[in-house]
Design brief:
InterPro entries: Transposase_21. This protein has 2 helices and 2 strands. With 111 residues, the chain is an alpha+beta fold. 1% of the residues are buried.
């Protein structure tokens, strides 16, 4: 039997533990994936995700509010949803190797 868990309600750290999806770094948003808007904050040396206003309606006042955000108006659109066949292809490409990495078994990832 094969199964895939496609939807849960939880916080991001739990989501990362449950799904194995990285909720840190360049592609942290599971909705946006490769369209994640990432900015590097020079003085605090942290990543900041500022593309969240693109999910608002096009006539929402916060889209034009550059002063409260990153000095830019938001003109982006919502990323297209991923269709089921794309999800199935992504799941097929996952190569899972169970076990603990030891000197005698170097092909396995560290757990």
């Amino acid at each position: 039997m094969r199964a895939a868990l496609l939807c849960t309600i939880n916080d991001f750290p739990c989501y990362a533990n449950l799904s194995g999806y990285s909720t840190k770094g360049r592609f942290a948003c599971p909705i946006c994936q490769h369209n994640t808007c990432l900015e590097w904050l020079q003085f605090s040396h942290k990543r900041c995700y500022m593309g969240h206003r693109r999910f608002l309606d096009h006539d929402h006042p916060d889209r034009k509010d550059s002063r409260s955000f990153n000095s830019c108006e938001e003109h982006g659109s919502i990323p297209p949803p991923i269709n089921v066949s794309k999800i199935v292809d992504m799941l097929r490409s996952i190569n899972v190797k169970f076990g603990k990495k030891t000197p005698s078994n170097p092909d396995l990832p560290y757990n």
